[in-house]
């Protein structure tokens, strides 16, 4: 176990700050980029890609394509030193945006997959 703080912040069984391994920490960083909207961080106002803002629009191929474009740019901008995105797909399924990311951990050169789902209201 390394010294990466768990996201979201939580306590372990001893009542101390919970820690995670490097792979989990990297996935947590991807989730933070996805789920943070621009302007939420005071000292980094351009951080994030705003997937939560997309939940207020109807699920469609256009929303999925826009999300894919924003996610790709944000991951390259904020995590390029940590990951190399191999593939990224955003699809609308059952009133949700499903985000599938295949990436290479630049430190270990291992390929990983992460999936996220953001609910979107139907029109």
TrEMBL record:
<dbReference type="Pfam" id="PF04965">
    <property type="entry name" value="GPW_gp25"/>
</dbReference>
<feature type="domain" description="IraD/Gp25-like">
    <location>
        <begin position="22"/>
        <end position="108"/>
    </location>
</feature>
<dbReference type="InterPro" id="IPR007048">
    <property type="entry name" value="IraD/Gp25-like"/>
</dbReference>
<protein>
    <recommendedName>
        <fullName>IraD/Gp25-like domain-containing protein</fullName>
    </recommendedName>
</protein>
């Amino acid at each position: 176990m390394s010294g990466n703080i768990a996201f979201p912040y939580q306590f372990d069984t001893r009542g101390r700050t919970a820690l995670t391994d490097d792979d989990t920490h990297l996935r947590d960083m991807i989730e933070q980029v996805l789920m943070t909207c621009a302007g939420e961080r005071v000292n980094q106002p351009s951080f994030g890609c705003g997937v939560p803002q997309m939940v207020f629009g109807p699920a469609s191929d256009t929303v999925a394509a826009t999300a894919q474009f924003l996610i790709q740019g944000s991951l390259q901008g904020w995590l390029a030193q940590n990951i190399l995105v191999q593939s990224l797909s955003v699809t609308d399924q059952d009133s949700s945006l499903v985000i599938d990311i295949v990436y290479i951990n630049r430190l270990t050169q291992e390929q990983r997959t992460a999936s996220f789902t953001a609910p979107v209201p139907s029109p």
